[in-house]
Amino acid sequence: MKFNNMTIYQIYPKSFQDTDGDGVGDLEGIRKRLSYLEKLGVDCLWITPFFLFHQYDNGYDVDDYCAVNPDFGTMEIFENLVKEAKEHKMSIMLDMVFNHTSVFHEWFQKALAGDKYYQDFYYFRKGKEEGPPTNWVSKFGGNAWEYVEKLDLYYLHLFHKNQADLNWHNPNVRNELKKVIEFWIDKGVKGFRFDVINLIGKPKGEFQDDFEGDGRRFYTDGPYVNDFLKELVRDTRLAEMITVGEMSSTSPEACIQYTNPEEGELNMVFSFHHLKVDYPDGAKWKLMEPDIEKLENIFTKWQVKLQDGGGWSAWFWNNHDQPRAISRFGDDETYHNRSGKMLANVVHFLRGTPYIYQGEEIGMTNGDFRNIDDFNDVESTNYYKILQEEGHTSQEALHIIKERSRDNGRTPVQWNGEKNAGFTTGEPWVKVNDNYKDINAENALKNSDSLFYHYQKLIRLRKEYPVISEGTYIPLPLEAKNIFAHRRKEGDTELLAIHNFSKEPTELAFSDEIKELFSDSKPLLSNVERRTFKEKILLEPYESTIFIKE
Ligand code: GLC
Predict the structure, then answer these.
(1) Sorting pLDDT into bands at 50, 70 and 90, what band is 461?
(2) Which distant-in-sequence residues (6+ apart) come within 8 Å of 76 by Cβ?
(3) pLDDT value at 53 more than 90
(4) Is 54 exposed, middle or buried (0-12, 13-18, 19+ CB in 10 A)?
(5) How many other CB atoms are there within 10 angstroms of residue 21's CB atom?
């Protein structure tokens, strides 16, 4: 399937739209908003898990991959949603959480009951004298092994202790997962997002301690992952689908391997390095301002390497695991509209497929959480404790959690200025942001200069100009700090993209080569008024302008 000129929209159903008043979004809510999404113009809706689960990780702890959680609706509603989405010219992509199941999954329950066949579905290991089999650290904090007294064995959980890692070396596991894919393709699904899929190639046999890190080097992009993916594609209809892999702590080289079409693995990958430029020395739970120079270097490196190696990226600022980019990299008050448009342009003019996360198109900001009880996410509540154990006061810990919590991206979508922002008539499961009276979809639709219409235009332009969806990426290193610029080229058409990440006006002078190339160019898109190409430009705060030469 052709995916270069597509734009994909991510829905976190729990926070999207509630229709039955229980405070939790549902599938019917997505159906209700299909016209809105069609108006935006997106091609495909990635819906995060709504399968049967226990809520330890909001759906990423799956009890049954082929059943709809009653909190979200029924299989019939899902089938109608697929049909109606198609009428609105959109397809559906589902989220496959195949690195682990919940401990409430039938397979794990049987394993616990002593069934050896199912014990081999997971990584059960003997402990060492002094404790767990290895010192690996779970991504949500603490040791990555949980002891089961009855069996006198530990099982591996790279995430929450209720998310047990699946043993992909067992062909029975792989065959069960293939059936899941086929099941959903039969329901009319056209794409799949694979959760933390580069963690499935773990070592065979005994695992080793990691004395240099948290264990990730032993299982990230492991030696078996590519064969596992190839087999999954070979034995299912995945090759006809849109596929994207979520890659944790990966490298451009690994991502070329995953996505080069000759390899027959995936269409594209999410990587996260560009969202760690405000982590001091990679530490998520410490704060700093984003390092824009580092951000530019990461974009350049990934663009050039993947292009040279025939790979393809999925690009995004926001998802259900990230604080809102407009609060992080933009200015969500003084320059709300302009910095939102700048960030949108950055992602949509990179070489790759852009993803929009619900609410991004109206500039939703970080949540306004006041105290720890306002948070719901397991990672946030775990780290609130860990930070205090490490010596932070409760206030300091709360401050860090407010900036970093995944709940920032999970506050209910702000549809209008009515009670609970039109999300629910009941009590919302997580606090609605107080700024909903200003920032909401209804207001956005009334204002022709809104972010919503900017995104609509970006999606349309991607389809009209092959240079955006397919053009070669050419880096443009500049002296000016906080400016990210590059070129794109396709045949005789060339783009010059300039984005100012700063609150300050910044002067930009072009080289003779650029002056000559773009002297008769015109702006294709800009978030400031009356911009024309000159050899010296005084960029406005958060300006983003794309010049085109045809
Ligand atoms: C992915 C999901 C995240 C989840 C984790 C474990 O990173 O996006 O929400 O907690 O995997 O499944």
Answers:
(1) very high
(2) none
(3) no
(4) middle
(5) 10
Q: Which residues contact 470 (CB under 8 A, 6 or more apart)?
A: 4, 5, 490
| Contacts of 368 by beta carbon, 8 Å cutoff, 6+ apart | 431, 433, 434, 435
Q: 538 has which bridge partners? A: 507
CA distance 367 to 434: 8
The first and second tokens of residue 401, run together, are 């959690």
Q: Which two tokens stand for residue 206?
A: 């005994």
Q: Considering the candidates 195, 221, 332, 379, report the single residue annotated as catalytic.
A: 195
Over the chain, what is the mean pLDDT?
Answer: 97
Per-residue pLDDT reduced to its tens digit, 171-211: 999 999 999 999 999 999 999 999 999 999 999 988 999 99
CA gap 174, 238 in Å, rounded? 14
Nearest to 441 by CA among 416, 465, 474: 416
Burial class of residue 130 in the structure, from the number of CB atoms within 10 Å of its CB (0-12 exposed, 13-18 middle, 19+ buried): exposed
Q: Output the CA 316–ligand 1 centroid distance in Å.
A: 16
67 C-beta neighbours (distance < 10 Å), count:
14
End-to-end Cα, the chain, rounded Å? 28
* Ligand 1 pocket, Cβ-based, cut-off 6 angstroms: 57, 60, 97, 159, 195-196, 246, 320-321
Dist. CA 539–CA 124, nearest whole Å? 58
* Distance of CA 60 from the midpoint of ligand 1 (Å): 6
Query: Closest ligand 1 atom to the C-alpha of 97?
Result: 12
Distance in Å, CA 414 to ligand 1 centroid:
24
Atom of ligand 1 nearest to the CA of 319: 8
- Identify the pLDDT of residue 95: 98
- Does the active-site annotation cover 333? no
The helix (H) or strand (E) run that includes residue 493 is strand 493-500
pLDDT at residue number 2: 80
In which band, very low, low, confident or very high, does the pLDDT at 481 lie, cut at 50, 70 and 90?
confident
pLDDT at 479: 85
Give me the sign of the Cα torsion angle 138, 142, 146, 152.
positive
Query: Active site residue: 165, 221, 246, 321, which one?
Result: 246
> How many CB atoms are closer than 10 A to CB 139?
18
DSSP class of 23: S
Q: Whose CA is nearest to atom 12 of ligand 1?
A: 60
| HSE value, Cβ hemisphere, 13 Å, CA-based, for 367 | 28
> Which ligand 1 atom minimizes the distance to the CA of 406?
9
**Catalytic residue list contains 195:** yes
Strand partners, 315: 354
CA distance 347 to 355: 8
Contacts of 297 (CB under 8 A, 6+ apart): none
| pLDDT exceeds 80 at position 1 | no
